[in-house]
C-alpha cells in the first residue's frame, strides 16, 4: 500500500483560504441577455416556449417574511455563491433566499394551460404568484412545475413570481452530493437556489404530461406510453417515426426531420407497441436515435428513442461480462462531478456541456460516471447523441457521519475495501485480503451512515425513484448507482430491488466502493493505493474508482492547496504515469475478469487537482499523442 499517499488524503484541520476566481471561455463571453436558451427537455419538445433565465431581483433575509427591500440583481440560473451570478455570497442554513420577477404572458386563451417549469432549485422552494402561496418543492436536483392557468384571464397578463428558498446543505438529511459549507479536499463549495433553467410553455387544455419509450432490441419493437392530463375528451394518438439518424457535427437537433416517416399511424390507446423495420442499434460508435412526432388532439411533442439493450452475459471462459446489444464491451470510464469554477453546479453554456463529453471521448473514454449529481436534461441528450455511456449516481444525503469511519479506514485497512460475503455463498474471500463483516443493517447501520431520521430515508427513496423516472428514457444510461462508499447508505438490498422493479432494463451498482451487501450486478471496487489486481465474484467485476493522479497547473487552479492520490510535478510525469496505469497496469486485467474501470477524474475541482483537465477547462494535461494511444486501445 502507498502509505505516504494515503496519509496525505486525511482531512486537514486548517481553515481553507478563499479560492482564486477562475472563469471558463464560455463564462468569459457570457451574454446575460441570452443565457442557456436551448429547450431544456429534449425528449419531449414543443415548438413554443419562453426561457426565463436572466436578471431577477434577489434578497437574502434572516427570516421567512417577505423582504422590505431587495438586495439587487442575480443572474438566473446561477446560484448566488457562483461568480456568474453576480452575487458571490454563501447562503446559510438559517437564511432565506428570495427571487422575484414579472412574468409577461401575451395572447392567453381560455382553452389553454400555461405551465411554469423549474428544472432544479436547491433545496426547499416555496413558489408565490401575486403574493399567494401556490407550491412547495423539496429536493435540490429534480424538476417541478407550477400551473399558472388559475391566475390568468384571456388576453395579456402580468404575474408577479416570487420564489423563497432555504438550503440546509450538509446540516440536514436532504440530498446534497459533495457540497459542504466548510469545504476542503474531496468536498466542494455548497451552492443554493435556482441553478437550472426556468421556463414557460403554453399547451392545450388536454395535453401530454409525459411520453415513455420501452425499446425491445431483440424483438425489434418499441412500446410507447402516453401520459396526459385528465380530460373527458379521448382523441386518437398520431405518431410518426423517422429512420434512425446520427447527429452530424454542427447539427443542433434531430428535428425537423426530412423525408417520409417509416411509421405513420394512429391509435385510440395510450399504450401501444410498434415493430421497428430494419432497426439500427445505438452504440458509442454509432449513436443512432429515432426521432418521433406525437400528436394528441391539438398537442404535438417531439421525442426520440434508441434501439439497444444492456445485459450481463458469461464469456467462453465463464467470466461474467458487460454486454451492449449482446456484445462484450469494456467500459473505459471517467468520473465526472459536473462542477464549474464560474458557475459551480451550472455550466455556463450548452457548448460547455458538450465540451466536457467530447473531451472525455477524445481522451479515450467511452463511459462517464456522473458522480453524486443529477445533471440538467440537456447533458444526457448530448450523451445520447454523442454515444457516451453513462453510469448515474444517486445524490447522497443523510445527517452527519464520520468520513474516517466510512471512507478513510476502509481504504486504509482493506484492499480495496471491505469484502462482504453473500449469505448464500460459502466461497472463501479472494486473495489474501482481510475478512470483514457485513455492514450491520437496521438501526446500527442507520447510526453509522447518518440515516437515523426516517424522514430522510423516505425522502431518499422517493428521490431515487423520481430520478429513475426522470432519466429512464435516456438511451445512454447503462447503470444506476444508489450508494457510494457508505455515504448515507441504508437498506441496500431493498433499494436495489425497488430500482430494479422501476427499471428492469438497466444494470445496478448497489454499493460503489465498499460495504457490499452482495446485491446488484457488480462487484464494485475502489482502489487508489494498492496494486491493481483481479477480484473473483459471481457478479461483474468493475474498478469503479482508481487513479486520482495530481498535477497542479499554476494559474489554472483555484487554490495552491492540492488534494488527490499521487502527486506529479510536470505534465510529462503525469502523462507517463497515466499511460502506464491504463496500458500496463489496467489492460492485462481485462482478460482476467475486469469489465470496466472509472478513472478519477475528468476535471480539477477546487482543491482536488486530480483532473485530466484544469478546473477552468483551458488546459488538457494529457497530450494528443498519449490520448490517441488510449483511444486505440479502448475505443
UniProtKB/TrEMBL annotation:
| GO MF entries | hydrolase activity, hydrolyzing O-glycosyl compounds
Locate the Glycosyl hydrolases family 2 sugar binding domain: which residues? 97-185
- Please provide the record's keywords in A-Z order: Glycosidase, Hydrolase
Name the coiled-coil region(s).
none
- The segment(s) forming the Glycoside hydrolase family 2 immunoglobulin-like beta-sandwich domain are 216-308
Q: Where is the Glycoside hydrolase family 2 catalytic domain?
A: 322-513
* BP term (GO), one: carbohydrate metabolic process
What does the sequence similarity comment in the record state about its family?
A: Belongs to the glycosyl hydrolase 2 family.
Q: What is this protein called?
A: Glycoside hydrolase family 2
What lineage, starting at the top, does this entry show? Bacteria, Bacillati, Bacillota, Bacilli, Candidatus Onthocola
Amino acid at each position: 500500500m502507498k502509505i505516504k499517499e494515503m496519509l496525505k488524503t486525511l482531512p486537514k484541520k486548517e481553515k481553507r483560504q478563499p479560492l482564486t476566481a477562475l472563469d471558463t471561455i464560455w463564462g468569459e463571453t457570457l451574454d446575460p441577455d441570452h443565457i442557456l436558451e436551448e429547450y431544456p427537455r429534449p425528449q419531449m419538445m414543443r415548438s413554443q416556449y419562453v426561457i426565463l433565465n436572466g436578471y431577477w431581483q434577489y434578497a437574502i433575509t434572516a427570516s421567512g417574511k417577505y423582504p422590505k427591500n431587495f438586495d439587487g440583481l442575480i443572474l438566473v440560473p446561477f446560484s448566488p455563491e457562483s461568480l456568474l451570478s453576480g452575487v458571490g455570497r454563501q447562503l446559510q442554513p438559517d437564511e432565506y433566499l428570495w427571487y422575484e420577477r414579472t412574468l409577461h404572458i401575451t395572447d392567453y386563451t381560455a382553452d389553454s394551460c400555461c405551465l411554469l417549469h423549474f428544472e432544479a432549485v436547491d433545496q426547499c422552494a416555496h413558489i408565490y404568484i401575486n403574493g399567494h402561496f401556490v407550491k412547495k418543492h423539496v429536493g435540490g436536483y429534480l424538476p417541478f412545475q407550477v400551473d399558472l392557468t388559475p391566475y390568468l384571464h384571456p388576453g395579456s397578463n402580468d404575474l408577479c413570481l416570487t420564489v423563497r428558498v432555504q438550503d440546509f446543505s450538509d446540516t440536514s438529511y436532504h440530498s446534497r452530493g459533495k457540497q459542504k459549507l466548510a469545504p476542503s479536499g474531496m468536498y466542494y463549495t455548497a451552492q443554493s437556489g435556482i441553478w437550472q433553467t426556468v421556463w414557460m410553455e403554453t399547451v392545450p387544455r388536454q395535453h401530454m404530461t409525459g411520453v415513455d419509450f420501452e425499446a425491445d432490441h431483440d424483438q425489434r419493437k418499441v412500446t410507447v406510453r402516453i401520459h396526459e392530463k385528465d380530460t373527458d375528451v379521448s382523441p386518437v394518438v398520431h405518431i410518426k417515426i423517422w429512420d434512425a439518424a446520427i447527429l452530424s457535427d454542427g447539427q443542433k437537433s434531430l428535428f425537423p426531420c426530412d423525408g417520409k416517416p417509416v411509421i405513420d399511424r394512429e391509435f385510440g390507446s395510450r399504450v401501444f407497441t410498434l415493430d421497428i423495420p430494419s432497426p439500427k442499434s445505438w452504440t458509442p460508435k454509432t449513436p443512432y436515435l429515432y426521432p418521433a412526432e406525437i400528436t394528441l388532439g391539438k398537442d404535438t411533442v417531439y421525442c426520440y428513442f434508441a434501439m439497444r439493450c444492456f445485459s450481463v452475459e458469461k464469456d467462453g471462459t465463464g467470466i461474467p461480462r458487460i454486454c451492449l446489444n449482446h456484445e462484450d464491451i469494456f467500459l473505459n470510464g471517467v468520473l465526472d462531478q459536473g462542477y464549474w469554477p464560474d458557475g459551480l453546479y451550472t455550466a455556463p453554456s450548452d457548448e460547455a456541456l458538450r465540451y466536457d463529453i467530447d473531451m472525455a471521448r477524445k481522451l479515450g473514454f467511452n463511459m462517464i460516471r456522473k458522480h453524486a449529481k443529477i445533471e440538467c436534461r440537456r447533458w444526457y441528450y448530448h450523451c445520447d447523441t454523442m454515444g457516451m455511456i453513462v453510469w448515474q449516481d444517486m445524490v447522497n444525503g443523510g445527517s452527519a457521519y464520520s468520513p474516517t469511519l466510512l471512507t478513510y479506514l476502509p481504504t486504509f485497512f482493506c484492499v480495496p475495501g471491505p469484502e462482504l460475503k453473500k449469505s448464500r455463498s460459502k466461497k472463501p474471500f479472494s486473495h489474501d485480503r482481510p475478512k470483514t463483516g457485513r455492514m450491520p443493517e437496521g438501526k446500527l447501520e442507520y447510526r453509522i451512515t447518518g440515516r437515523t431520521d426516517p424522514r430522510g430515508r423516505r425522502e431518499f427513496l422517493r428521490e431515487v425513484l423520481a430520478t429513475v423516472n426522470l432519466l429512464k428514457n435516456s438511451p445512454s444510461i447503462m447503470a444506476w448507482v444508489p450508494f457510494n462508499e457508505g455515504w448515507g447508505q441504508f437498506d441496500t438490498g431493498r433499494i436495489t430491488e425497488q430500482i430494479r422493479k422501476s427499471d428492469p432494463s438497466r444494470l445496478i451498482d448497489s454499493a460503489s466502493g465498499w460495504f457490499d451487501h452482495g446485491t446488484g450486478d457488480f462487484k464494485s471496487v475502489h482502489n487508489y493505493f494498492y496494486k491493481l489486481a483481479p477480484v473473483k465474484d459471481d457478479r461483474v467485476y468493475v474498478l469503479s474508482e482508481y487513479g486520482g493522479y495530481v498535477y497542479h497547473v499554476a494559474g489554472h487552479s483555484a487554490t495552491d492547496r492540492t488534494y488527490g492520490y499521487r502527486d506529479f510535478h510536470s505534465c510529462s510525469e503525469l502523462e507517463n504515469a497515466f499511460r502506464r496505469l491504463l496500458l500496463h497496469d489496467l489492460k492485462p486485467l481485462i482478460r482476467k475478469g475486469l469489465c470496466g474501470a472509472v478513472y478519477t477524474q475528468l476535471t480539477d475541482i477546487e482543491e482536488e487537482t486530480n483532473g485530466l483537465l484544469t478546473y477552468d477547462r483551458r488546459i488538457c494535461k494529457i497530450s494528443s499523442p498519449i490520448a490517441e494511444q488510449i483511444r486505440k486501445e479502448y475505443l
